Amino acid sequence: MSDLLSLRGVYVFAFGLAAVICLAGTVGVRSLSHPDIRRGLGGLLGLSGLWSLFTAAQLATPSPLAQRIFHLGGLIAGLSTIVAWVVFAAAYTGRSYHRQRSFQIGSALLLAIVIGIKLTNPIHGLYYTTTAATTPFSYLQFSYGAIHWFVTGIVYTIAFVGFGWLFESFERSDSRPTVLYILVAVTGVPLIPYLVSPSVDPLLGINYEPLGVAVFAVGILRYARTEFANHSSPGLSTLADSVAVGGLVLDSSATVIAYNDEATTILDRETIPRRPLAAIDDGLASIPSGETGHRTYTVAGRERTYEVTRSPIDDEAIAEEILTLKDVTRVTRIERLVRLNRDLTDALLESPAPWELIQRVPERMAEVGAYDLVWLVPVAAADSTAADSSLSADGGPADHPGGRQFRTDADPVAGVVAGDATDYAEWVADDIPEAEPVIDAATTAAASHVAVDEADAPWSGRAADHDITDSLAVPVDFDNQQAFVLGVYTTAPTGFDAVEREVIEEIGESIPQVVSTIETHEEALQYEEAMKHAGVAISITDSDGVIQYVNPAFEELTGYSAAEAVGSTHSILKSGEMSETHYEQLWETITGGDIFEKQVINRTKDGDRYILQETVSPVTNDDGEPEAYVAVQFDITDKLLREQRLEVLNRVLRHNLRASVNVITGQTGLLEDRIQEAIGEDALPAAIEDSSRRSAIGSNTSTPRPKPPARSRPCWEMIPPSKPGNLSTRSVRLPPRPRPPWGRVVSAISTARLTTAGSTARRPGSSRSWWKTRSAITTTSPRPSRCG
Q: What 3-state DSSP class applies to 312?
């Protein structure tokens, strides 16, 4: 009891209390979220507690051997605290040294060597020596050798490296952590009693370091953690080492507690104070947690675009969020180029005046960052000052003796220019420098890519004065129209990269393609309009025979609407009356590139049969292979019906004509019989001959005969026969008239014979029987008939 109240008891109590506090503090580290910080600080507290505990046991035991053992255990525990401290400081400041395999192996090897020297000290006695002290009480006094102080110096050096990491983090936030300074000073206080103990009688000549380390460890846990939270954050070093990436670390109140050098460059600040993010940059503060936005900043005199990502941080003791600022200027520029190409294509397709939009291409491209000059140069204008004609009324290039060229204003610059460096284009137009890349490309109608720093010419010096670093010329060739070169000058420090050049070349290619598409589309609309109003059925199929288009005449002829026909084949029109050979011949002909034409019988949707004249023509590609087929169908059903009716009518008319001739022949025979009966059979030939001679003489006489007065003559009304071969007649006798002269009668018979030469009259019964007819006999007398 007296020892407890003695000086020995005070020492044992002090070291024992420090051990208990440190060991109890290991429970508190469980509240820390970061595992490496938790392990580092927990190891520091635990080893400090063991060191103090071993020292208390050393002072409490009277046995010299036990004192040596406890002292050696304390030295090993104290040496191990430096490893725990490095792990804590590295993890807390975002460094990863403690995770590196080389660091772990080196630390373990160095620790093993020092521990080995301590354990073998009884043999070599180089680390420490012992002497028995009797005042103020009996204990072993340890005197340390040069090796101990060397190891102690290394340990303190490593410890101050860890302090430096913390101070560096605090300096970034322009803060002064007073508590940390005090705690660091506390670690050096134990050296004072050890050094003055020989001259101060009550002080023991022992190592007081366990007390200083214990106070520091507990202070870190109990008091300094809040101070650290205000000034530091893990992961900061990783951000600082990131190339072209700025970083801002925020606490739970969105206050900037750490940053890297790249962030100061982007925000144009020497330091970033510990203030709320909204007070530093409203745009950054407006980005919600977990989201990504874009901000534009002027860096080194050029506008640059940054992708800002605000992300929460897990398993960290202090930081809640981190903002990263990634330079995406080039990526954004390429995205804008791609979007411009798409928008330009859509606008050209929708615009009624595509040439007007083409003129605005330089202006649109100049809006993309880093393109200080965009020049659309006519290929025909080898002399850039030769353009003296303006655009035509429809927006296209106007005709000019030296080539059709563009102008934007009265300035003598050929083509269209846009951007901040348009005065460079004016200088080029005035001086026409040799080897200027875009003008050379316009002269040769070829692409070019020339960096300014690679050229030694007047134009490169003038371009450098405008901060131009690279030039690119892309041909823009139109079919049968004015060709151009699209010249793009960039001020980007690295010039054009491969992807950027590819996108610009694609713009140069897409513009003519779209214009050609527009013209082709307009022609197609005209053809479609013509087919709509065509009077014949037209259908278009693909190479497999699937219908792609039908005109209204097709719908009217077949009964199938366009919606029903498109997607089907012409098999929907099959009537079943055409053989398979017909279809095989059709496909063999058109797939061979030839035209097939034939009459075909089809059926409509309602089942009506119709006949058509069909012509199927293949549409071939450049290789001569059919890629579509056009079928033209003429409905000839009514035509064939008319032809059939005409043929029947023709047969009827021919039959009736033959019947009329037979009647005339019969009437002639009747007259002949009557004349023979009247004048005699032998006198008839002579009368006919005499009549013929008189007719010939009369035809040669120039004096016209007086027209005789009209005389009445009988008319015969013929009645259709009741049956063939037995004709019945009834006669109606008009007022009597004088009998005509026999000469005229004979002349009429002669004329009738000449008219019916080769015909044979049927005379049923005797040769003197009358031949009944359906029409009256009319002589050649010029006198009008009274029967009409």
A: strand
Distances (CA, A) of 557 to 600, 602, 614, 640, 645: 14, 10, 13, 17, 23
pLDDT score at 226: 57
Radius of gyration of the chain (CA): 61
Q: What are phi and psi of 141, to 5 degrees?
A: -100, 125
pLDDT, one tens digit per residue, over 733-780 is: 444 444 444 444 444 444 444 443 443 444 344 333 333 333 333 333
Whole-number Å distance between alpha carbons of 541 and 554: 13
Q: Strands across the sheet with 302-312, in order? A: 256-259, 245-250, 321-327, 302-312, 292-299
Distance between alpha carbon 133 and the CA centroid of its chain, in Å? 90
Structure tokens at 70: 């406890």
Amino acid at 587: W
What the block records as the tokens of 41 is 């600080």
Sign of CA dihedral 505, 508, 514, 519: negative
Report the C-alpha gap between 434 and 414 in whole angstroms: 17
Alpha carbon separation from 276 to 250, 270, 288, 561 (Å, rounded)? 9, 17, 15, 71
Token look-up 């029967």 returns: 787
Give the mean pLDDT of the chain: 75
Cα torsion angle, 443, 448, 449, 450, sign? negative
d(CA 86, CA 249) in angstroms, rounded, equals: 23
The closest alpha carbon to 293, from 280, 278, 279, 309, belongs to 309
pLDDT in tens, 651-672: 888 888 888 788 888 777 787 7
Torsion of CA 477, 478, 484, 485, to 10 degrees: -30
The bridge status of strand 609-620 relative to strand 321-327 is unpaired
Using CA atoms, how far apart are residues 747 and 691, in angstroms rounded to an integer? 6
Which residues pair with residue 326 across a beta bridge? 245, 307
Tokens representing residue 620 in the block: 């071939």
Q: What is the pLDDT of residue 695?
A: 61
| % the chain with pLDDT above 90 | 7
Cα gap 520→525, rounded to integer Å: 9
Cα–Cα dist 119/125, whole Å = 10
pTM of the full structure = 0.44
The conformation of residue 408, written as its DSSP 8-state character, comes to S
Would you give the DSSP letter of residue 708? P
Beta strands in 55-154 (DSSP E): 128-133, 139-144
Digit-coded pLDDT (tens) for 353-366 = 777 778 888 888 88
Tokens 């026909």 belong to residue: 565
pLDDT digits (tens, 9 = 90+) for 501-560: 888 888 888 888 887 777 777 777 777 788 788 778 899 999 899 999 998 988 888 999
490 pairs with which residues across the strands?
371, 470
The tokens for 355 are 């040439």
* pLDDT higher than 70, residue 484: yes
